[in-house]
Write a structure and sequence with these properties.
mainly beta, Neuraminidase, 4-stranded antiparallel beta sheet
């Protein structure tokens, strides 16, 4: 009897030892398992755009339309308008029009921090929204504004700092100049004039006899396919004398490398579809634009048209894409 008890005790002891070993091995195996790497950070946003629903959101996304994020929310009962985004040359900030703290030109960091107001705008202009555009050195911004309701716009220059306080009228004409685009050489501008032509301007720096001023030098749309059409929102290529524009509801490229021999190319040639607000990619190899409430990209020759962003119940209309130009 005592031998049987000793045998059962030995069995029990061995069972307990096996259980302890089993748990020990299991715990060791779990500890030895390599840790999982943290998820990769989201890619730097490439495209800024406007999303309109009950209000408007200023948004960013990757070049393929992924990782869409709100930088400035105007749809949570605030009815804030934020539009016409334009990336700074270093790709860290975005200039845009908003009325969040009163109508004006604003700057925000690409992560949604650092919102600041550059300068107040008059309201009630013919074309409105300011359409700000950075200088190639990132120190200044040009935009369009009127002097009051019902008056025509001029193009203004302002330092890209908080509460800049003063602005310089570059055009100062009786007509309307709007949708300005700063050339990559920093010495020229392109802009719409009087709801029709696109004009090239030479930008003259102060020399003791005058302040900053823009002098018109060439009409890019007085002849050819745009003679009777509004060609709007010119955007200068980074590496050549070409601008991409919206005209007759298509996307066109005007090549003025040879000023005496302008060439025009219709990239989209769609019927009854409105395509607007084109912008070049960093290497001028692609163009982003809005079409039928969505955002599309295509190759610079008009091929490989791809929709990258579509509206949802909260964002009914996507528009005004601007592609970050730095690599």
């Amino acid at each position: 009897m005592s031998g049987k008890i000793r045998f059962l005790g030995l069995v029990t002891l061995m069972g307990l030892l096996g259980t302890l070993l089993l748990f020990g091995v299991s715990g060791w195996a779990q500890k030895a398992k390599p840790p999982q790497p943290p998820p990769p950070p989201p890619a730097d946003p490439a495209i800024a755009f406007r999303a309109t629903g009950s209000g408007t959101n200023l948004m960013v996304m990757n070049a393929d339309g992924s990782n869409q994020r709100i930088l400035l929310n105007g749809t949570k009962g605030t009815n804030v308008i934020s539009c016409s985004p334009n990336w700074s040359p270093d790709g860290n900030r975005i200039a845009f029009y908003s009325d969040i703290w009163g109508s004006g030109i604003y700057i925000i960091n690409k992560d949604g921090t650092g919102l600041l107001k550059v300068i107040a705008m008059h309201e009630g202009g013919t074309y409105g929204a300011g359409n700000p555009h950075w200088s190639p050195d990132g120190l200044r911004i040009i935009y369009s504004d009127s002097l009051g309701p019902g008056l025509n716009e001029d193009i203004y220059l302002v330092d890209a700092v908080a509460n800049a306080g003063s602005r310089i009228n570059l055009t100062n004409s009786p007509g309307a100049e709007f949708y300005p685009s700063w050339g990559p050489d920093g010495l020229r501008l392109a802009a719409n004039v009087d709801a029709g032509p696109i004009i090239l301007f030479n930008l003259l720096e102060p020399d003791g006899t005058h302040d900053w001023m823009a002098v018109p030098v060439q009409n890019l749309t007085e002849s050819g396919p745009f003679a009777d059409e509004l060609a709007a929102t010119p955007e200068w290529a980074r590496f050549s004398d070409k601008i991409v524009v919206s005209a007759a509801d298509d996307i066109w490229v005007i090549d003025f490398t040879d000023p005496g021999n302008l060439t025009y190319r219709n990239l989209t040639q769609t019927l009854d579809i409105r395509e607007r607000n084109p912008c070049w990619s960093p290497l001028d190899t692609q163009i982003v634009y809005d079409r039928a409430s969505c955002i599309y990209v295509m190759h610079a020759d008009g091929s490989n048209v791809t929709r990258i962003a579509a509206p949802n119940p909260k964002s009914l209309f996507l528009s005004e894409p601007d592609w970050r130009r730095n690599l």
